[in-house]
Each structure stands twice: as structure tokens, then as C-alpha cells.
Amino acid sequence: MKEAPAGSPAAAAPYDEPDLLRDQFRQLLRYRLLIVCGIVLGLAGGGWLGLTANETYVATAEVTVRTPTADPFAGGTVDRVAMGSERRTAVSDIVAQRAAEALGDPDRAQQLKRGLQVTNPPNTEVLRFAYSADDPQLAAERANAFVQAYLGNRQADADATIAAGVASLESQRAPQLERRDALEDELGTLFEGSAAYDNALADLSGVTSAISDLNAAIARLTSLDTTGGRVITEATPPGSPSGPGLPLLLALGYVVGIGIGLLAAWVRLVFDPTVRSPGDVTRALHAPVLGVLPRPARGDGPEELLAQGRLAEEYRSVAFRLAYDEAFAQRRRLLVVAPRGSIETPLAAAVNLTAAFAEMGMDALLVEADLRTPTLTEQLRHADGVRPGWASSPGGRGESTDWPSGLRVPIDAEESGIFDLVPGRRVRNVPRALTSPAASQLINHADAKGAVVVVLAPAVLLYADAIALTDRVDGVLVVCDPSEVHRDDLTRVRELVVGAGGLLLGAVLHSWGSGTDPREGEGEGDGARPGERTGEAEGRDRDGRAPAVRPVPGQPHGARHRQPPGGVNREPQGSNSETMGLRILDPGALGDHEGHH
């Protein structure tokens, strides 16, 4: 197999990274049903959550925690508020029990505490009480109950501390009061001016001063405000539930559904063995995609073998590209095959390419090498005034076994001109007929100047007929439906063709489909293609023959522009075709190539 030059497009990577990403995204969009199912699933989940989830209301109250300004033990400020400790105290069991008692349900303190959340805004001495409940009134009532329980607990702690301090001071004052009373009684028994009287009077003055200090301390403690804090925001019933509503849940479900759909499409893409894009065909065959046949209306296939309109222009575009491909121009022999399945589309491609070559002014010959179920001669209109070659063969049609001797039928290709057809015929030994000297001599007709031979053979992976012809024809054109052929099949076709000494010129893609499983009939015996053994295949009658679709004489046909000789268009139409990997013929070297063959 001739290698492409290093600077040719075939030697370069088929895609740049942005193009590869776009190609992969387009491949994901092939599975639109999975993406739509993911979106529907996401919307259904969001709607279900929005309609069935219990609405939760959150009531919020805020409290400023007060700081004591006097210390009964040291005389200064000792209790700066530790907000972390206060937040833990607010959610403690003691506060919850107080709240439960205030709400009249002391046995459900733990259950009530589950809906409470206490936070401390940074750099503040504020506690925020948020209570969640199914009812807005209940949420506000319980939030306020916890606030009051916390403040009450804090005030009770302060009162207990003050009471303890007062009790300690009073216990210190009691002995002093007794001594004061004893000194006062003693002074009543002593004479004024005596030394004993003066000593007793001095002791009484000291005791009285100590009692005064203790009384002042007790007065300071009992005068402290023991309120635990001040409510700056009272909880009120919220007007709307918290959390996402139904519209937001639907939007989230839509986004999640797109993600699920794309993930499902990606998984399907990873495990999809079929060809996903023309780039896959190029990478599997190591050959360019020469054309992509236009997609017909749904349910419609090709109505006539000789195409019209856009389809005819696409066939002409492929023929022009082949004519200017260096590898094909050296030999001018073309084998048209399919990887698997039926032969209908390769048959149409072979006929139209032969007609396009005839339109270029070449001596075109179409060889139907399908010797198992030949039908081509029944589907084409013979040139007027010319009798088929098989009509003069000894024994009549179908009885002679010396195919292809004497079998050449001129075919009217309408405005494209006339080309010769060597129709297929059922023979007893297909491999021997295909490899016979007569078949090789027929294919060598392409060695004549200005001649071209197009050979139609059965599917490569069903029969070995195409491989038997490869070393004689050399150039192979694969016609396949990307939605039905597997990448492994194309790789196998390349290995077989290259191993047999042939050259893959490229591929033509179509999307008509055969209506059958592309692998149906694999391993069956000779004599029929898949879908034709039971007589129920598409477009075939009970005799197993394809219905004649040749146009009625005199019936108008779609206009097809006839290319004048020598006026070959070097920029063929068809914007949906991939042309990478073509080896352009140097016109100056054409004579040298012909001289060697």
C-alpha cells in the first residue's frame, strides 16, 4: 500500500483539539432521547420534592448578653462574656427544660431542642436563636420560649451568685455584731476615763467600722441588676417557608436532568460499537470520506438507480475526486463494496459512478461481479437498437458457465451518455469464475487509454468474492451506512484489503439503511445475501429478484448538467464531504504512469 507523503493531509491529525471537542459534542447530541429523558427525570424529581416535602418555617430572635460591672469577690470586673460558652449554654438541657416547662410540656425537652439553632455573629455579644417548625406560629412561640428560658437561666445564675456572696458577707458580719453587742455591754460597766473603758471604746469603734464595710458590700451585691440580657429582636411568625420553593427546585431539577442526560449519552457513546462520525470512518479505514450522500425524506430510499438532483451531484463529486486521485488515475480500476448487509446502495453507487465517468468522456465499463444474486441488468435501460451480449450466447441466459465471456450490454445513462455493463450471472463455482483468466482480461480493459472499470462485488465480510478481486482491481471504495456498520468491521475491511494487496481509496457514507440487521445472515451458505433468503426482503418479489426501476421511455427526468470534455470542475460540489487524504494527480505525469501499465 502506498504511503501518503509526510506533508499531505492524510499524514496530519484528522482533528485539532477544538474540532475534536465539537465533534464529540455533536456525537453526544445523537442521543437526544437520552438527554430528554434525563431532563424529564430531573424535572419530575424537582417537582416531587417541591410538592411532597414538608414546608419548614424558621423564626429568629436575637439577644444581647449583658456583662456584670462589679465583682463581689475582687471589687473589679471579672466576668467578661465568653460567647462560645454562652452559645453552648443556650442549647443546653437546662435551658431546654426551662423552655419545655414554659411551653407546658416538660416531658419533651429533648424533642423541642432538635429544632433550635443558636449562632453568634462575629465580633458581637449577640446570640441569634433560630427555631424551625412546620407551623409559623409554633416556630415563633418556641423561639421566644427558648430566649426567655436562656435569659431566665442566666438571671438565676446571677441571683445564685449574689445570694452566695451576700450569705458569705453576712456570715462574716454575725461575729462582729455579737462582739459589738458585748463591747457595748462592757462599756456600761466601766468608769469613763479609765484605761479599761478607753480600750473597750477603741475595740467597739473598730468592730463598728468592720460591720459598716460588710454592710456596704452586702448593699452593693443586693443592688446589682441580675437581668441576663436584653431582647433586641423578638421572634415573629415568618410569612413564607424557608428553603427552595417549587420554581427553584424545578430549575435545579432541570440542570441536574441535563447532567444526567449527558452522562447517560456519554456512557451510551462509549459503549456504542457503531461508527459515530465521518472521522471514525477515516480513522478506521485510514482513508478519506469522499462523499456523504444526502439524507432522503424519512421512509424514502433511492427511487431510481440513476440518481437525480443533489444525490446525482454528490455522485459526480465523488467521481471527480477519484479521477484526480493519483492512486486511482494510475490504474483506473475501482471495486465498490459494502462491509456487511445488502448490496442495494453499493449497487446504486457503482452505477452512478460509472455514469459520471462516462460523462467525463471516459470509456466506462461496469462489471457486476455479484454472481450469487445478480439483478443489475433488469434495473437499467439498455441502449436502443443494441441487443444484449448474452442473447447471442450459446444455450441462452443462465445456462452458460463461462462468465464473463460474451457478456457486454450497452446501458443508456440518459444525459451522461452510454457505458457498457457486464452483468452478473449465477454460476456453479463463484470463486473459479471470479479468478478466471477471462475475468482478469475483462478487468484489464482499464489499461486502455481513457478507459475505466468499475466492479461491483458482494459485501466484504460476508463473502470472499471482493477479496478475490482486490489484487486485480487494486482500488477499493467502501459504501456504508454509519448507523449500521461497526468500527471493528471497518478495521477488518482495511486489514483484508491491505492484506490482499489492495488500496483503500476512500468511503462513501449514506443513511438509507437496509432495514435489516447489518450482521444478519453472517455464517450462512452461498446463494443469497442477508434479507433475501426468505423472499421477504425489502423491494424484492417472490422470485427473489429486485423490481425493475428503470425509467419509462419518454418520461421526463431531473435535469443533469452534462460536463463538456476537458472542462472538468476541479472544485466539485458537496459541502458535506470530507476530502482529507486525497493524492492529487499531476497532469504532467499522467503519460508516464500510463506507459508503465
TrEMBL record:
Biased composition annotated in UniProt, kind: Basic and acidic residues: 517-545
Location of region: Disordered: 385-406, 511-597
Chain ranges passing through the membrane: 31-51, 246-267
Gene3D superfamilies (UniProt xref): P-loop containing nucleotide triphosphate hydrolases
Keywords: Membrane, Transmembrane, Transmembrane helix
PANTHER family to which the protein is assigned, alphabetical: CAPSULAR EXOPOLYSACCHARIDE FAMILY, TYROSINE-PROTEIN KINASE
Protein name as annotated: Lipopolysaccharide biosynthesis protein
